Amino acid sequence: MTVLIRDIVFDIGWVFVGIHPEPLLDYLVSHGAPRMDLNATLEHVGLADHETGRLDGAGLIERFRALAPRAPAAQLRRQWLDIFTPREDMMQLARQVAPRHGVYLLSNIGELHWNHLVSQYRVDRIGHGALPSFQAGVMKPDTAIYAQAEGKFALAPATTVFIDDRPENIEAARARGWHGIVHRNFN
Fold it and tell me: pLDDT at position 1, please?
């Protein structure tokens, strides 16, 4: 059976940009934070509050400052924003398929990183629209964000493919009838 794909939905992190948190983590430790891996650090500062729009950027930076009390807020902000490496090949792929397909972005991301990626890499101009989680008020893999994307972009699940690096996000999309590709090539 041949499936015709009309719309392609891309995640951003680990698809359009690589994430390199080591300098941020080292900076936090050098300014009074205990040594933790990235997941523990993000859990500690409650990143999900920021990525669902319940906490603004200034509030997130203050949470980082509580973790690393000797770090000036402006430097913390720069360190937080400077964790990305662009994946030009994937961004170019999205641009290349956009004339023939609907191309949309669906990402768990807070306003600070979103605004930075818009400013630095113009991700808002890739394709035909975006639904960052901080605007949706919910994050993947919650099915509500996929439902919002369907409504906002007029997506038909049977003709939509989602590209994301996290298998649980792909499974949630598939549960709504979308096709999914787990993106693995993020050198």
Answer: 67
Can you give 87-152 as a three-state secondary structure string? CHHHHHHHHHHCCCCEEEEEECCCHHHHHHHHHHHCHHHCCCEEEEHHHHCCCCCCHHHHHHHHHH
Rounded Cα distance between 112 and 123, Å, is 14
The answer to whether 137 and 53 have CB atoms below 8 angstroms apart is yes
Model confidence at 138: pLDDT above 90: yes
- Main-chain dihedrals φ then ψ at residue 55, nearest 5 degrees: -135, 125
Q: Helix or strand or coil: residue 127? A: coil
Mean pLDDT of 69-95: 97
| Full-model pTM | 0.95
Omega before 141 within 30 of 0, i.e. cis: yes
Q: What single-letter amino acid sits at 21?
A: P
Residue entry with tokens 């049977």:
158
Helix, strand or coil for residue 115? helix
CA distance 37 to 174: 30
Question: Is 117 strand, coil or helix?
Answer: helix
Predicted confidence at residue 66, as pLDDT, reads 97
